Amino acid sequence: MNQRPKWVIELQFIGLGWYIAASILAGVSVGLLLDGWIGTSPLFLLFGLLLGVAAAFYGTYRMTAAFLAGQDD
To answer: Which of 1, 5, 48, 64 has the fewest CB atoms in 10 Å of its CB?
Structure first.
């Protein structure tokens, strides 16, 4: 039974949290930037937020699936 050390698992979950935050922050930032350039108020902000949340969910699913596939029971 080859099990990963506890600190490796902890770092994977920390990375997952950073990925979620970065995805949402990037979507909101790009949305705010586009709203400032084009002059639309919340349109691209909401679209960027939606895109960031979708990317966060997709990445979370992929990382969690890879994590669970590597677990030894």
So the answer is: 1
Cα(22)–Cα(42) distance, rounded to whole angstroms? 20
Half-sphere exposure of residue 63, counting CA atoms within 13 Å on the CB side? 17
Backbone angles phi, psi at 12, to 5 degrees: -65, -40
pTM: 0.81
Looking at the chain, list the stretches that DSSP marks H as alpha helix, in order from N- to C-terminal side. 6-38, 43-69
Question: Tens of pLDDT along 43-56?
Answer: 999 999 999 999 99
- Give the Cβ contact number of residue 63 at 10 Å: 16
Q: Tell me, what DSSP letter sits at residue 4?
A: -
Number of Cβ within a 10 Å radius of residue 43:
13
